[in-house]
Amino acid sequence: MTPALPMLGAIGDNTIDQYFGSRNQSFVGGNALNVAMQFSQLGHTTRYAGAIGPDQDGHRIRQALEENNVITDGLVVLDGVTSISKIRVMPDGERLIEFEDFAVCADYKPDSQELDALAECAFVHIGMSPFADEIRKELSRRGVRISQDCAVSTGYDLLDVAFCSAGDNLDGARSMAESAIDGGARLAVVTCGPAGSIAYDGTTWTRQHAAPIDPVDTTGAGDSFIAGFIAALASGQDLQSCMKAGAAQAARTCMHWGGWPQKGQ
After folding, report:
1. Mind listing the pLDDT tens digit for each residue in 79-135?
2. What's the CA angle centered on 102, arms 221 and 98, to 5 degrees?
3. Are strands 46-52 and 84-89 parallel, antiparallel or unpaired?
4. CB 36 within 8 A of CB 64
5. 8-14+31-59+69-81+108-253 belongs to which homologous superfamily?
6. 3-class state of residue 244 by DSSP
7. Cβ distance 103 to 83 under 8 Å?
8. Can you give the pTM of this predicted structure?
């Protein structure tokens, strides 16, 4: 019998990505939500914790999570509105984020019950959260392995994996990785777009090339890399295999619109 894949969790932001300009569609997204969706599509039992508003966008986000078999016990409704991001699509396909409102996501703080539930996961990823420092401390106290997207939440201490993004600047990527390790992370992984990715544990550097593709949309590619990497790591794969898994998942995401396969509205 094939052993069950480990349960994984994600906590933090969700949003409705509203594309306009050369393309007029909207997609369910957000760093933490995208990672959760990818975990689930990779076959893992997945738990997501975050906040939505009591509006149609919030209903859409909950429905999307549930339709993709993500556990939503930790998805709460707060007074206010659901997060939105407005993204201009240029005629050449370039995307420009012109407006972001994290809305109730910025007010969400998990309670002890939800932290205890997340502690049942083999790994928990933190997306955007003003409370990231406290969440890391609480999850670490509960013995959870933790990753964080350090482009959207600050702090490196207590992280098993710190994810950063440096465009295609490899020199900048090395500096980011060193800063993450100096700040207390056990492993730093920096994605560099078409230049691939690097990892650093304070002693050894590891490099992974990006898959040679002609992307349709790069929205959520970094989130997909995180999900592929963590899913492989939680399953006991070595570092190079984890980086390959992340690169492969990111490449798949770049071949469709939105951060995970869905019908845009």
Report:
1. 999 999 999 998 887 888 899 999 999 999 999 999 999 999 999 999 999 999 999
2. 65
3. unpaired
4. no
5. Ribokinase (3.40.1190.20)
6. helix
7. yes
8. 0.95
